[in-house]
Design goal:
With about 80 residues, this protein is an all-alpha fold. It has 4 helices and no strands. The relative contact order is 0.07.
Amino acid sequence: EHADKEKIIWEAFKQRFGQTEFSEILFDLPSLIHQVQDLESLEHPFSTQEIDEIIKKLPNDKAPGPTGFSNEFIKKMLANY
C-alpha cells in the first residue's frame, strides 16, 4: 500500500538524518520583533529616478535574472534610453 511505503520512507529518512526534540526557545522573541508604524509609504510606486539610482549601483559582472543580460548591458541600455 502507498501509505505503508510512505511510512517506511519517512522512518528511513528520520533514521538517516536524525531528529531533535523541541525543548525551548533560548531568546526573547518580542525583543527581536518590533512593530513598525506608518508602512503606507511602501505602497507608493517607485520613481524613475529611484530605479535609475539603483541600477547605477549594481555590479557590472552580474546578471539579475535568467535572461543572462548583465547589469553592464542594462546600464548601457538605460544610458541610451
